[in-house]
Write a structure and sequence with these properties.
By secondary structure, the protein is mostly helical. The chain has helices at about 5-20, 25-40, 40-45, 50-60, 65-70, 70-85, 90-100, 150-160, 205-210, 215-220, 225-235, 240-245, 255-265, 280-290; strands at about 115-120, 120-125, 125-130, 145-150, 175-185, 195-200. The chain has two domains: about 5-160, no CATH class; about 175-290, no CATH class. The chain has a two-stranded antiparallel ribbon. Strands 3-4 form a two-stranded antiparallel ribbon. Strands 5-6 form a two-stranded antiparallel sheet.
């Protein structure tokens, strides 16, 4: 997931976070403790950028520092940062967090839309995951890049579990896992008992996280979608895109991948996987099926 946000917006997030808090002395105390334990003011902890945030936590876990963070600091951080600042996070900040990326689908499952919609005083909002959970890391409870917009089901299942696959890590890649399917009977295109969706992993951290989130089990509820993708490959695969290009030479379609996008009703370029649910599964299953059928295709 690519983060796109200006420094001004980051500063606005900080101002919003501490703005109007009457207990200035608590804030001052937190600031002093952050400087003592982490050699940086609270402001810098709140705005640690993705890579810095990961290094910050790695440092804590590998060294002895996590042990020497005294309990009283944990409890002050918990009382003030979690129960005051986080509990009263402003709507503008929720909007800033939502707009950190262009993604509109839960980054953990790619199954469910997340949204931020406001009407009058009511809001329909995504759920917020503390990637580094607030029990162990209360001092990170309002850190901008620690708050991940996710779907309710992933948020609930993840709870306080510690993952090693951080959604804002630029090293993450579409190729870290691959969807496929196993045919278990002759009626595999219509009967869900004859068909199973599989996920193969090339990254241990993602496999562990997905396992915690029940991904393999949850994706079995999308067998019908996968079966339709396979049928579309069979019906429309061979020569279909090329024949449409020939039939409409006037530029109705820009290229073959645009036709595939319409056929599969989803985005097929990994850059766009965050825009619509099940896009990664769609691409992987279509890829595998077209290859089995010996159909040359390109998505880009
Ligand atoms: Zn999710």
């Amino acid at each position: 997931m690519k983060v796109r946000i200006s420094e001004e917006t980051e500063e606005r997030y900080w101002e919003n976070t501490v703005d109007g808090r009457r207990n200035k002395s608590a804030l001052k105390q937190i600031d002093e403790l952050c400087t003592q334990y982490f050699q940086m003011p609270f402001h810098d902890i709140v705005l640690l950028r993705p890579r810095e945030l990961q290094e910050f936590v790695e440092d804590l876990s590998h060294g002895e520092r996590r042990k020497i963070i005294a309990e009283d600091f944990q409890s002050i951080a918990n009382n003030y940062i979690v129960t005051t600042l986080y509990a009263h996070l402003k709507e503008d900040n929720k909007k800033i967090i939502f707009n950190l990326t262009e993604d509109k689908v839960c980054p953990y499952c790619n199954r469910t839309y997340i949204e931020y919609v406001k009407r009058d005083k009511l809001h329909v909002t995504y759920e917020m995951d503390h990637y580094y959970n607030k029990d162990a890391y209360p001092f990170l409870a309002v850190s901008l890049y620690n708050l991940i917009p996710v779907c309710p089901s992933c948020n609930r299942i993840k709870g306080t579990k510690e993952f090693l696959y951080y959604p804002y890590d630029e090293k993450n890649s579409y190729g870290d896992s691959r969807f496929g399917y196993e045919i278990k009977g002759t009626d595999f295109l219509t009967n869900s008992d004859d068909f199973e969706i599989t996920i193969e992993y090339f990254n241990k951290a993602l496999e562990t996280a997905d396992n915690e989130l029940y991904m393999k089990e949850l994706y079995q509820t999308h067998k019908d979608v996968a079966q339709e993708i396979i049928r579309k490959c069979q019906y429309f695969g061979k020569g279909y895109a090329k024949s449409l290009m020939t039939a409409f030479p006037g530029g109705l379609f820009q290229n073959e991948s645009e036709i595939y996008r319409l056929v599969f009703e989803n985005y097929l370029d990994e850059e766009d996987f965050g825009k619509r649910p099940l896009s990664k599964m769609t691409r992987d299953i279509a890829d595998e099926t077209l290859s089995i059928l010996g159909i040359e295709h390109e998505w880009g």
